[in-house]
Amino acid sequence: MLRPRVIPSLLLSGGGLVKTMKFGSRKYVGDPINAIRIFNDKEVDELIVLDIDATREGRRPDFSLIEEMAGECFMPLSYGGGIQSVDDARTLFSLGVEKVVLQSAFLRDPAILRAIADRAGEQAVVASIDVARDWLGRRKLHGPAARGRFRDWREALRAAVANGAGEVMLTSVERDGTLSGMDLEMIGEAAAMIDVPLIAAGGAGSLDDIRRAVGAGASAVAAGAFFVFHGPHRAVLITYPRYEELQELWRTAA
């Protein structure tokens, strides 16, 4: 497997895959099992699947669907969405999920990260932090669960690592789905603050964007639109760079 990692991030909604734009409008992408089979053939580094409705709807993960996905997935699978307890995480690991991704539960009580890490290891725990700019251009934690416990996204970032997260996934909301490039300033600031791998997400539209994010300090880059849309009309076409392309990308970045 190549390092740094280049990771497709798939969004589940209603049992199907969608892609959002700035966490808003959704476009249907297809069936998750078919997408996983395609990514298997393309030998991707790993895969992140996030159920973007589970927490909002107050439900636990769809364990039946996740078991089916894990059974088809040949690469390491990370899952997030609706995870509220150590038992939820334990069930996911038993189904074949390699890493759990937590946001709402972590922002409400960071101790859940340590509770899971104590049982599965820190390498199996990913804290997810979404950041959006307010009307003054200041970066703020995004989402209902972000209100109250932490003053800002940097505090949440530090708390994630202090409480046992083996990785942090940091997403720029205003760049999500835009293919317009990544928030290199935020990536650099975050990477300098923590000593665990940083997965940068939001805005990747080219291999050069991915290279720049890694140059800014990311250990991995997660992307959605870049791997599922093609052309100016954003036609659905699942793609992934060839091994040789990524090999050349990291060679020229060295």
What does it look like?
The structure is a single chain. The chain is α/β, with parallel strands linked by helices and 254 residues long. The protein has a single domain, classed as TIM Barrel, CATH 3.20.20.70. The chain is 35% helix and 24% strand. It has an 8-stranded parallel barrel, surrounded by 6 helices. Strands 12-13 form a two-stranded antiparallel ribbon. It is globular and about 40 Å long. 42% of the residues are buried.
The sequence of SSEs as H and E is EEEHEHEHEHHEEHEHEHEHEEH
Largest sheet: 8 strands, parallel, barrel
CATH class division: Alpha Beta
Low-pLDDT runs of 5+ residues are: none
Question: What is the helix fraction of residues, given as a range?
Answer: 25-40%
Q: What share of the residues does DSSP label as strand, in percent?
A: 15-25%
Shape: globular
CATH topology type: TIM Barrel
Distance between the termini: 17 Å
Major beta sheet, strand line-up: 1-4-5-6-7-9-10-11
CATH architecture: Alpha-Beta Barrel
Q: Quick check: average pLDDT? A: 94
What structural class do the secondary elements suggest?
Answer: alpha/beta
Please compute the radius of gyration using only Cα atoms: 17 Å
Instruction: Let me know the CATH homologous superfamily.
Output: Aldolase class I
Task: List strands and helices in order, with pairings.
Elements: E1 5-13, E2 16-20, E3 26-30, H1 32-41, E4 47-51, H2 63-72, E5 77-80, H3 86-95, E6 99-102, H4 104-108, H5 111-120, E7 125-133, E8 139-141, H6 153-162, E9 167-172, H7 184-193, E10 198-201, H8 207-216, E11 220-223, H9 225-228, E12 229-230, E13 235-236, H10 243-253
Parallel strand pairs: 1-4, 1-11, 4-5, 5-6, 6-7, 7-9, 9-10, 10-11
Antiparallel strand pairs: 1-2, 2-3, 7-8, 12-13
Helix pairs in contact: 3-5, 8-10
